[in-house]
Amino acid sequence: MTDELQCTYCERFSDEEDHVPPRTLFPKPRPANLVEVPSCSECNRLASTDDEYFRTFVGLRSDVEDTVEGRNLMPAIERSAKRGRGPILSVLESARSVERRSRAGIILSPGVAFDCDLNRLDKVVERTVAGLYLDHYGERLYPTHIVRSFCLDGLRNLSSATRANVEKSVAEVLKRRPTEIGGNVFSILAHALW
User: Fold this and answer.
1) Is the pLDDT reported for residue 194 higher than 50?
2) Is the CA virtual torsion 177, 180, 184, 187 positive or negative?
3) φ, ψ of residue 146 in degrees (nearest 5)
4) By CB count within 10 A, which of 7, 42, 44, 72 is most buried?
5) pLDDT tens digits, residue range 7-39?
6) 174: burial class by Cβ within 10 Å (0-12, 13-18, 19+)?
7) Contact 101, 107 (CB under 8 A)
């Protein structure tokens, strides 16, 4: 099996192309520089509902809703909600009113919070990293390496020494100029940690 014929995510042969990051993040007309990688139909099919779930959470974030990119996601999210099926249902069913505060602790207008399945979001991030790695380096990341993603809130439980190492690594990545896919919709900051 060659990398060109093998699925980016498993050991099966590829028979489709997968977009990384998911093309659901980009409104039509989609940008010309979307990355496509080889995928088997099973991996691609299993990923599609997670991609929609990811798009929903990105589009509903309060820090995204006032951006052009965030507003461009809303028509697709609204169409999914009107169809009354798919990942959007579990997201909307978990909605609840919450008190919002500024960073200074000032109480703002009420907001809406949603329960989030971080495992589903992590799958999209991990698949995107594997696909972008193949696109950039010309070889599959798997099976020799494993990708893991973490929510920043999840790092609270780390020891202070481990957290300092992670923060140092992230600081190095943030010094780099990002590569953009689709304008301001998706930026890649990469840094080899090995």
Assistant:
1) no
2) negative
3) -120, 135
4) 7
5) 999 989 999 999 999 999 988 888 888 999 999
6) exposed
7) yes
What amino acid occupies position 15?
D
CB-neighbour burial class of residue 39 (10 A; exposed 0-12, middle 13-18, buried 19+): buried
Q: How far apart are CA 21 and CA 188, in angstroms?
A: 10
Tokens matching residue 166: 């992670």
What average pLDDT is seen over the chain? 84
Size of the chain in residues: 194
How far is residue 122's CA from residue 82's CA, in Å, rounded to a whole number? Answer: 26
- Peptide bond before residue 38 is cis, with ω within 30 degrees of 0: no
CA angle 192, 53, 21 (to 5 degrees): 35
Cis peptide leading into residue 29 (ω within 30°): yes
94-127 pLDDT tens trace: 989 999 888 888 998 898 888 888 889 999 999 9
Give which of 142, 193, 185, 191 is closest to 19, Cα–Cα. 185
Interacting residues of 41 by C-beta distance below 8 A, sequence separation 6+: 15, 16
3-state secondary structure of 187: strand
Q: Would the pTM of this model clear 0.85, i.e. be above it?
A: no
